Amino acid sequence: MQQVQSVILDIDGTLIDSNDAHAKAWVRALERNDIHVPFEQVRPLIGMGGDKVLPEVAGTEKESEKGKRISSMRKQIFLHDYVPHLRAFPKTRELLQHLREQRLRLAIATSAEPDELQTLLRVIDTQASKYFEEQTSSQDASQSKPDPDIINATLQRSGFDPAHTLMFGDTAYDIEAAGKAGIKTIAFRCGGWSDKDLQGAIAIYNDPANLLAHFDTSPLKQGF
């Protein structure tokens, strides 16, 4: 039985209710480039970065001229039209505070771009950065989830021991990426994925509030 010493957290769909907003921003950016892809096709891809989404829905690479144009539009749409309306899931701030009170070390690992990450953190709390020792984002990895690059970068920068670290995520991509880096995952349903999709996790909770309510019986307290 391993005791938890540190936690690596995803943010979109895990701490903040933003997955639908990301998908809508992609759909609108694609439409502005005469690529018509339904929301239902894009939504299951959220959790991966643009390096994975663009080849799938637009047949182009993120670093191509077309890919850069679409990515830039998506980002502008997301930040301008959707971020002002985003909310953290219930008890997110309280969960982060409790984790720190339990002397657990925390880090963020996300496919979001660095400035998007800072904006998202402010949705949780204007001082949310204080909870995290490290923040890794798309600029820190050549490949986004489900490749393990971002998780590995977080481990390297933080010095977390994988054997005593858990991942918080909401998608199968989080679970796969963490697994490739030697880390087990606690999954949340609030990102919109089914229990079947999340079956690789060691525990599944509805949302941060649900985990906080059952903290003492969770792997965070009991070990794994």
UniProtKB/TrEMBL annotation:
Molecular-function GO term, any one: phosphoglycolate phosphatase activity
Q: Offer a single GO CC term for the protein.
A: cytosol
**InterPro entries, sorted:** HAD-like_hydrolase_sf, HAD-like_sf, HAD-SF_hydro_IA, HAD_2, HAD_sf, PGP-like_dom2
**Which SUPFAM superfamilies does UniProt cross-reference here?**
HAD-like
The alphabetized list of GO BP terms reads: DNA repair
- A Pfam family found in this protein is HAD_2
Q: Which domain of life is it from?
A: Bacteria
PANTHER family per UniProt:
BLL8046 PROTEIN, PHOSPHOGLYCOLATE PHOSPHATASE
Listed name of the protein: Phosphoglycolate phosphatase
